[in-house]
Design a protein that fits this description.
single chain, globular, alpha+beta
Length: 128
């Protein structure tokens, strides 16, 4: 199974776990927006607390599950690793691959707050 493609195309929205400066855990839901066969890319706005946690610590665990008519028809993927902030790199590619982002951030000014992250290295866990 090509787990990055499954994560982006079939699961897409995942639960993301991060920690703050006091090492308190936080979860958010975020979309895995692009994969290149090596890693997965996602974005968030620079004014969000999630952005700060990703930049300050960078340790992330994501978990998502495909749709299906029961547990046996679903696939679950979890990635744990370090993310790196790549700023505006690939910023045009992510909304282009996910056109709904233009509805969420309809103006260039709104999109100017978006910043891209990617996993450096991942440890993946699958449940098929």
């Amino acid at each position: 199974m090509d787990y990055l493609k499954t994560l982006v195309q079939e699961i897409h929205s995942v639960v993301v776990a991060t920690v703050d400066e006091a090492k308190n855990p936080h979860t958010s839901v975020m979309d895995m927006m692009l994969e290149d066969g090596q890693t997965v890319y996602f974005l968030t706005a620079s004014f969000k607390l999630l952005f700060k946690r990703l930049k300050d610590d960078g340790r992330v665990s994501v978990n998502g599950m495909t749709q299906g008519n029961g547990t046996r028809e679903r696939k679950s993927i979890a990635l744990t690793g370090q993310v790196e902030h790549i700023g505006k790199e690939k910023l045009e590619d992510l909304p282009a691959a996910n056109p709904y982002m233009y509805d969420i951030y309809p103006t260039e000014e709104g999109r100017s707050f978006l910043e891209v992250f990617r996993f450096k290295h991942t440890r993946e866990n699958f449940m098929i």
